[in-house]
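step 4 of 6: structure.
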Amino acid sequence: MRPLTRTLALTILLLSVGGISGAYSQLTILGGNINMTVTTGVAGGEPIAVTNATISLRYRLQNRITKITVRTSCPGQRFNLAVVATSVPQGTAAPQVTLTNGMLAVDLIVSIPRRPPNTNQTATLLYTASSTFAQGNSAELGNDVHTITYTLLDQ
Amino acid sequence: MKFHFLILVPIILLFCAQMQAQTVYATRTHRVTVIVSTITLVQVSSGVVNMTISGADAVAGQDLMTLTNQSTNLLWGINSSLKKITVNTSLAAPQFTLKLLAGSSTQGTAAPQVTLSTVPADFLLNIGRSSGNCILQYTAEALASQGTGTDPHTITFTVQNQ
């Protein structure tokens, strides 16, 4: 292979994988892992749902209109968990997403505009955990451990 | 030249496909653990029930006088399995008889009518992992020969393992 051809081929290859490079600063979950505990309820009603808004999602605008999706893996899921993005500075929050084990990725924030500005945007993740009396409790059934995946991609 | 063409065409096609595909810029995960505590709730709809047997409840020639009351409800919420509710009274030596039955229970199985005593007796069975309510059907009984008096009961409902 001639040097020119080799250079051209390498350049194209690098361009073709360009979507991967630099990905590590494009989306960040701020706040780490959390526990949510349902502790009380209403006699004749249901347990009272608990919410958590301590986690944020930081994302960067791209050269194309993008969106953020969410999905979860929670083998043996017994209770209920939902998430919605609030205080979304760029883009539009989708309706609350019910997180179910094995679900396909569902839109969380859509229509994130192109840059500029090339700056970080931060939205709040509002989680809601709930259960019914009929669903039982963790002492008998165990906890639900969700591994939740957020993806920033072209819309 | 032919060799270069064979190399370049797949690479260019790959590049074009990349340009058309939905680019994923980043994927991140974190963990959310949902814990549901053991919740056991039982509640009466009203704190006080007064039952007064009067002459209107008497039948001439009959010693037994009875009066019923269904004005209150029992509500519960339990997320543990295999539970029942028992009932007992604080009054060790009542002058009259007070009986109780769970009526129109939305969940579980009502036990037979209970004559209240200080010993807990089954009131409602099979109410594990449920939420519901029932009518508290009190029946007070007095004999005309017992005369007059007042029995102040403090009635306790308890959720127990079945």
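step 5 of 6: annotate
 - Chain A has one domain: 24-154.
 - The domain at 24-154 of chain A is CATH 2.60.40 (Immunoglobulin-like).
step 6 of 6: archive
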